[in-house]
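Need residues for this backbone.
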């Protein structure tokens, strides 16, 4: 297993309540935000980005309420590089602020209608103001992945000198791949020597891979959302990053991973976003085996087709009986009903099960299996009588 620099210091900042809620069409109720914050804290997240205080109203009140929960996690407010924004954050009682401004020319010219010089000045002023008030500061380089690298180094250096605690490297439009990420983050850290957070988006399906590549290059923080909820194709998923660090990189962050499925279901309900069966780590199909060879292996020893145990993420193993089943799965399934089949019976039933599954174009429910078995017994008695 590859060794990662600073492996013991990797920290997770979850932004389900900020970047996750920014997803088109998603709104959390205030109570839902509080409950999600509590669950994130219980699971072991180091920092919770709770929202955008300058929005005022319910958003600000909820962030205040989250700060009053007395959680172990640090609570961060999101801000533009504007003093007024930071004042709203401070009024909420957060202990950390994210100060965000674009560093790419395309954003500076076409969105901010500003200049590199003004971007630097606003960021430095906002950072110095926040540090004067004693909060932890993450300076967010929005669209960092499309920024001129030389300007990004200058920006990061200025942030560091203004007292920023870390730089959030935002792959805002999700155009990185792991190889590029590794090179760029390595270079950034060696040039500037500032703590880096990976904030990656999943437009090309590489958010988690890019986050890991950043960690490999020395990034100490990873920004995530539950089930990868986020704009467009979403963000790096909390459950994917934590489990990949643990099982692929040997870095155990000691999270209560057994809560992952429950948290995923809750965020899915609250955001009205479906949780697909094939979702990595928490999808209901993660531990479902139908194919004869896989089910046989998983029944003999789950490690043959499973990298970690279902209980580790709050799921259960299921043997699905359908077109691709084999006799050992049929036997195991009927044993659950207290029926011990011999090989001949298992083979006879398998033929009937397969025919039914093809006809219905789906696996079979337990009840259907029982009916097939009863029909089979009925035929056997009739044959014996003849
Ligand atoms: Mn984002």
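Answer:
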């Amino acid at each position: 297993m590859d060794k990662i620099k600073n492996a013991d210091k990797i920290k997770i900042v979850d932004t389900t309540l900020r970047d996750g809620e920014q997803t088109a069409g998603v709104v959390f109720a205030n109570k839902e935000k509080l409950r999600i914050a509590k669950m994130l804290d219980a699971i072991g997240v180091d920092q919770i980005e709770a929202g955008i205080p300058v929005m005022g109203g319910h958003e600000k009140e909820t962030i205040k309420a989250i700060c009053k929960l007395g959680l172990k996690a640090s609570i961060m407010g999101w801000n533009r590089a504007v003093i007024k924004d930071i004042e709203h954050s401070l009024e909420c009682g957060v202990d950390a602020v994210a100060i965000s401004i674009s560093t790419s020319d395309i954003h500076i010219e076409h969105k901010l209608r500003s200049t590199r010089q003004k971007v630097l000045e606003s960021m430095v002023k906002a950072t110095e103001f926040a540090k004067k008030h004693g909060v932890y500061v993450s300076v967010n380089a929005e669209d960092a992945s499309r920024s001129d690298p030389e300007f990004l180094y200058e920006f990061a250096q200025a942030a560091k000198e203004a007292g920023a605690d870390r730089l959030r490297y935002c792959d805002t439009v999700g155009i990185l791949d792991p190889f590029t990420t590794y090179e760029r983050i390595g270079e950034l850290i060696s040039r500037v020597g500032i703590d880096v957070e990976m904030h990656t988006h999943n437009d090309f399906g590489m958010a988690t891979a890019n986050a890991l590549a950043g960690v490999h290059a020395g990034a100490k923080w990873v920004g995530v959302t539950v089930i990868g909820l986020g704009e467009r194709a979403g963000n790096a998923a909390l459950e994917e990053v934590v489990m990949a660090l643990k099982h692929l990189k040997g870095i155990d962050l000691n999270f209560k991973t057994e809560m992952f499925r429950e948290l995923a279901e809750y965020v899915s309900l609250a955001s009205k976003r479906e949780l697909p069966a094939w979702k990595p780590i928490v999808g209901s199909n993660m531990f479902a085996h139908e194919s004869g060879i896989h089910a046989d292996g998983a029944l003999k020893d789950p490690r043959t087709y499973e990298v970690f145990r279902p209980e580790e993420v709050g799921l259960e193993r299921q043997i699905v009986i359908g077109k691709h089943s084999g006799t050992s799965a049929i036997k195991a399934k009927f044993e659950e009903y207290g029926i011990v089949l011999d090989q001949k019976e298992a083979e006879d039933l398998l033929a009937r099960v397969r025919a039914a599954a093809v006809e219905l174009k789906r696996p079979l429910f337990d009840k259907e299996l029982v009916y097939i078995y009863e029909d089979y017994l009925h035929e056997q008695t009739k044959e014996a009588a003849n």
